[in-house]
Amino acid sequence: MKNVLWITGAWPPARCSIGRQYKLAKYLPEFGWNPIVLAYGNSNFDPWVDDTSLKELEHLEVHRTKAGDSKILQLTLPFYLRKLGIDTNWWSAPDSQIRWKGPAIKEARRLIRGKKIDAIFSTVPPFTCHLVGQELSQITGIPWIADYRDFWSIQDIAYRVTTEQDKVMELSVLQSADWVTIVNQAAIDKMRDAFPFITDKSSAIMHGYDPEDYEGLDKAVKGNICHMTYAGTVYSTRIKEMKTFLQALAVFYEENPIARLKVGFVGNCKAIETTALDLGLCNGRVSFIPWLPRQRALETMARSDVLLLITGNSPVDKYGSPGKLFDYLGIGKSILAIVPEGEITRILGEVGGVVVAKPGDIEGITQAIEIVSKVESVERAGVEQYDIRNKAQEMAGVLDWITTS
Fold first, then answer.
1. Disulfide engineering: 343 pairs with which of 126, 186, 238, 359, CB 3.0-4.6 Å?
2. How far apart are alpha carbons 156 and 143 in whole angstroms?
3. Which residues contact 141 (CB under 8 A, 6 or more apart)?
């Protein structure tokens, strides 16, 4: 069994969007690779924890250092520096975890001295992880994979507002990496367009669903009422599209006053509760349930007839393939997707069992709601390709390649 230093930043029980990296790590040992995880403790900006994933990861060795995003260093001090007219962009480049870099490298070097590390893997965001991976690889000569779940510095589709410093950092990272992976084919094509020199040392390794997550779930639906569920956070970049969905839903109920459809939002959806109330939807037709641990959220999705997927409508959204999409596929229920044409529509078009509407199209969304509320069975093909075990095997193949070529 070979060892890979798995630099991930956040790790369970943190609740952030880290499903792909911990699911890949979970199954890598089946393909000859043992991840030794390097992570930080709970982030000061995301204090919620979900310990439901810890049991399935008990076979992995995890080492943690303190998170780097001190509120004093990231908010208070920069605030006063800006009042003095001092540019603070440099303060947090590439991200709020930059002060984790030193402790992470120190801990990683200790691990490398005490264990036989055959490869290094870092995944972003936070982008500081790549700076850690890069420096370790340069110091030790150990081959390194730079993995992306979001774009870093490509204009208009970057994860956040970026600076020239970010661009310099990313260029250096990509030049140094032995291999580059990213979450889907559309995204890797975009990366290759922006950085042609990575073409021959890059590949797409997608997210996927874990069949073990759904074992024993009660998928029975409740009588003659159609239950539609949205699970997850309503991010600021999606508020407009979510409100448009609610407007279309109100039109649907107006046109179908006796419709047996109930819609539930599970997670941090406070940003749209007022809109739902103003539209008169909070009368037993639309409900809001606060954030739930992952397993309970899956149980709620499993008991639904329709699963609702809504993204933003910006240029970056055409390259996205959120983890929620693969949970929806794994659970096997009908999907209403209100998304722009892009990677999500490509995936759903291949497997079927979905009704798609364009963001912002109230008439089209209203029609889609009516169609999906009447679907009685779901037929899909080729979903097995998104089993996360298959993706772990692909990652093991890349690790084999960089350590033997």
1. 186
2. 31
3. none
